[in-house]
Amino acid sequence: MTQRRIAAARGERTQLTPSETFRFWRRIGLLLLTLLSHVPMHYLWRLLRLPSPWPRWFLRRVGRIAGARVQVIGIPLRRDVFYISNHLSWIDILALGGASGTAFVAKAEIGETPVVGWLASLNRTVYVKRENRMGVAEQINQLRDALTDNWAIAVFPEGTTTDGRSLLPFKTPMLRVLEPPPPGVMVQPVLLDYGAVGEEIGWVGEEGGINNARRVLARRHSFPLRIHFLEPFDPRDFPGRKAIAAESRRRIEEALVAALGGPLRPFAWPVGPVNYTPPGD
């Protein structure tokens, strides 16, 4: 791991070189052009009461601008599906949303973030307050309503990001929507595999979101991202959210071990203490 990467993981602001600065602002310019071209078309489709493909196209385009070269392996279900995925980076949302058109479950703070919250809402994001234990039932109802509308919903049950060579225990509260499963809904595990650049792209340690975005957008090269849509399963065959989480994690771990060509390693933050909440019930 480079000294720049270690500094970033510590939350330190690293100075960009002139070439990195050029690449960063070039990508920012392309992102703004994509925003200005795609969002008005989305609203036009909405005005005409047509299904809008523009959020999906927007996410796909932004992911490519950020450097991701996505390869889809397997067949994603398009509707009536609950995706359960590992999590490394904010790039995950761009790539997975662009490849499948799925909506996401996100922290409520995302919805309150200027611009980012607005863009997330365009993609039908379902917001939850992790600390609001009294409001879990209401949040579950929001997810059920989304699935009733035949949406695809994606969750990252690790609750934080990793380095791509590890897999944390899966938290289960948001899987209560599958107790019992809505009629016809399937679960499809998803593996996001960044290969050798996973440790560099991964948003881990105490690195701030702005620092991570600057570092990724200033990179010289593009990077591969293989999205493995694994074999879906009927959640009725695994009663209860813990059983569903365990089966999803088993399949993702099996696919990750195959992708790495060896066993997983225990996850350790690059610096400092572990800063995620232990898995809950």
UniProtKB/TrEMBL annotation:
Q: What is its main location?
A: membrane
Q: State the organism of origin.
A: Sphingomonas koreensis
Transmembrane helix: is it a keyword of this entry?
A: yes
Q: Name one Pfam family in it.
A: Acyltransferase
Write out the transmembrane intervals: 28-45
For molecular function, the Gene Ontology terms on record are: acyltransferase activity
Which InterPro entries did the record assign?
A: Plipid/glycerol_acylTrfase
A single GO CC term, please?
Answer: membrane
Q: Keyword annotations for this protein?
A: Acyltransferase, Lipid metabolism, Membrane, Transferase, Transmembrane, Transmembrane helix
Compartments, record wording: Membrane
Q: Which residues form the Phospholipid/glycerol acyltransferase domain?
A: 81-195
GO biological process: what's one of them?
lipid metabolic process
UniProt-recorded name of the protein: 1-acyl-sn-glycerol-3-phosphate acyltransferase
